[in-house]
# Entry
Amino acid sequence: MKSFLFRFGLVLAVLVVVNLLSSFLFFRVDLTQEGRYTLSEGTENLLANLDDDVHVNVYLTGNLPPGFKRLETSIRETLAEFQARTSQTLTYRFIDPTANPNEKQRTEFQTQLLQKGLTPTNLNFSSEGSQRTERLIYPWAIVSYKGRELPVLLLRGNRSSSSEEQLNQSIENVEYELASAIRRLTVREKKVLGVAVTYTDVEPLRLSDLLATLQEFYKIELIDLQASRDLVGLDGLIVPKPDRPFSEADKYKLDQFVVNGGRALFFVDGLKIDSVGREGTYAQPLDLNLNDLFFRWGFRVNNDIIKDLSCAFIPLNVGNMGDKPNVQLLPWRFFPLINNFGNSPIVRNLDAIYSRFTSTLDTVQAPGIVKTPLLMSSQYTKILKAPALVSYNEARQQPDPRTYDSGVQLIACLLEGRFQSLYTNRILPGDPRAATFKAQNQDAKIVICSDGDLLINDINYRTNTPYPLGYERFSKNTFANKDFVVNAVNYLLDDNGIITARTRQVTLRPLDKIRLREDRLSWQLLNLVGPVVLIGFVGVAWQFARRRKYA
# Structure
């Protein structure tokens, strides 16, 4: 009896000590191969610094097919991880917008969601008995903080992938999408992002959608390089579609900004196209007086243009139908659709990108610089050297795929490291710039893209309002241009590193459907009868052992 009381007391004491320690020490063990339940360091830092309550309403729940059920489960598990690291500062709730049996109340609630920008998805799937079921789902969440709300789209992926792969990509992006929304709502001190507008004729309205999005993260300043003494005070700089040569003084400012650890994004063209006619216009080389600077940094924008069989469409009059023109959408190889990406969190799981009059990009040797390809063309390309004939009538011609043999071409690249100044050994001691000149100073990052139009939105001239960046008004598709630019800026400027959450990989492990159909009965019997047999076997073995011991 004393031995039993001692063992009982010892077990009780261990349980009390473990519970006391668990109230002070927090740890969780992730046993999955992909680290599925391990948050990125940037997300953990973000959650640890929350100064007020955050609430998340998720509307993807209810009677869902298995693939979407996996997405719902991933969202629920991710939010549980968020909550575990915020000491209940973060709360969440799952709401099915279609579950209310009162039709009037259900319609009013769905209308409210629609007004907030939460557009439903019409889903068709096979339910039990192979019956086709159609229903609306809302793959959205709303993050609330201090009276502010932000909608979050949770169903994202590359539309060229299969539906199963798109759902898997969405699962991989759950942490980033939710953490990014929380960051947008909780950011206290915004970094300064400059936009160099001195050497471009792009009107501000055509940059408005991108700048409005970036303003949620950063303080935006339009920079006149000629009027600025230097670029000190800027954390990042965007150079959008320059179309005339930079002065040596302004080129020196760019050089020193990058050498001193600045972050910069250049969207530049290799050719200048003033206008395009039906019969054709010759695109001429564009001299920005930046070739030597770019070459020193490790890349070169070529004076050429890409024709790609993977391309967008343009409307073209192909003749008359009766007394009316016959306008059809035809593929135009001068507008490549970019769906070939490198290995970087900037472009992981990104949808296709819409580009116009894109040049090729080459990398050259630069000591200490790490280069990561971001955007690439398809393998079916043709390169036209300047002067290149650009004609609308080219869309009416049937291309010969055998002539599109230039292979995959680099369009955008990330460069990281300590950049060498172009002006090394050029600044004399008596030069006023000598006091602040640096030949090589701090680690910097650059994103270079050889398409100046990639970050420019179209305009609805009837209402004089901008279309979303990436919206193609002829096909009415919205491509991932804005996602690419925003991801690139966040990668360059976000010290917390939330963008690294995009590197998460969840491996698909599909079952063999043929074997599953053939061996269905065997697996059902194993799952139903197996546990009962196992328990019976353990019981018999236990009784046999007791009889041998106490007989």
The mean pLDDT is 86.
